[in-house]
Amino acid sequence: MAESTTISNTENLMKYMKLDQRGAVLAEYIWIDGTNGVRTKTKTLSKPVKDYKELPEWNFDGSSTGQAPSDNSDVYIRPVAIFPDPFRGGDNILVLTETWDADGTPNKYNYRHEAVRLMEANAKHEPWFGLEQEYTILGPDGWPYGWPKGGYPAPQGPYYCGVGTGKVFCRDIVEAHYKACLYAGIQISGINAEVMPSQWEFQVGPCEGIQLGDHLWVARYLLYRVAEEFGAKITIEPKPIKGDWNGTGLHTNVSTAAMRKDGGMKAIEDACKKLGERHKEHIDVYGEGNADRMTGEHETASMDKYSYAVADRGASIRIPRQCAQEGKGYFEDRRPASNACPYRITGIMMETMFGGMDGIDFSKAET
């Protein structure tokens, strides 16, 4: 790896990691902050837990995370899911939480709460989601790993799903993240090197309903945490390098019970038509900086035009050729940027396909 500012001595650390915790359990509470990032802090528990409902509510200083003013800074975190902790092992756990304000209402950046309501109201449709999270690995200087300092590598072509020195960079981070996700029980379904060097992708899903957002956010946390140990930075900016280089997306695969049945192509096409009617509303919640990525080039559609087609990676919505041949399956929304919130993506998807609910409008959510 390149020179890093990270101070790490694995041999010394392991002496302490092996110490007996004397029955105590460490719970790493994870929440999404006001900048679309993740924050965590650790609570000591007196015994192992098997269900998130056994865990206590906690709080943090929201004025330091962009989620509350300093004169009313307490924000509460309520556990919603637990996962085995791949860093500490044993009975230690990761705890995904929702953020709530002191008056008992969801924090304005708590997109999960409304997504859950929509998922539960439309559970009969059995929505499955699979998201493809692209990201770029940077060195401490903010430049992609493996790139010449202040310069550029050879043009795109040999890097996608590449093998060998000079074609892929930081595979150790990618493999470590993959194993950490599997240990934690994340529904990670694969990885691959992407078109731009030092750009990678992992896939989460298929998951039903709200589970997709939960698993993707914890997978993001694990990626940041693994990269931290290697002295690398992770960016999910949609266009980290300007010019003739691919951007990074969060392609969203969607299937419902009606789409998976024989003759499901009609349901797929009906959904595609509905998505076109709310193209702008979807774009508004599909990530910050997406205009730099969605130019109509580099395997993207133009942000200003909506289209759907079979096997066309330049369309807004791609219907896989195999699904078209079988007459059923799923579609892929290629518009979301890599930094989009999965709760907002899946929430507005449900809203568009099956109708909204009183008090919920994902197109008008806080940005």
Structure description:
This protein is of the alpha+beta class and 367 residues long. It is 25% helix and 23% strand. It has nine helices and 13 strands. The chain has helices at 10-17, 112-121, 171-184, 211-229, 257-260, 265-277, 279-284, 321-326, 342-354; strands at residues 25-32, 38-45, 58-61, 74-84, 93-100, 128-138, 188-193, 199-208, 233-235, 250-255, 308-310, 317-319, 331-333. Strands 6, 7, 8, 9, 10, 11, 12 and 13 form an eight-stranded mixed β-sheet that branches. A five-stranded mixed β-sheet has the order 2-1-5-4-3. β7 and β8 form a beta hairpin. The longest helix has 19 residues, at 211-229. The chain starts with 9 loop residues before the first helix and ends in a 13-residue tail after the last helix. The mean pLDDT is 95.
Broad shape: globular
How confident overall, as mean pLDDT?
95
- Separation, N- and C-terminal Cα atoms: 36 Å
- Series of H and E elements: HEEEEEHEHEEHEEHHHEEHEH
Structural class comes to: alpha+beta
Q: Segments where pLDDT lies below 50 for 5+ residues? A: none
Number of helices: 9
Largest sheet: 8 strands, mixed
What amount of the residues lies in strands? Answer: 15-25%
Q: What is the alpha-carbon Rg in Å?
A: 21 Å
Counted beta strands:
13
Helix content estimate? 25-40%
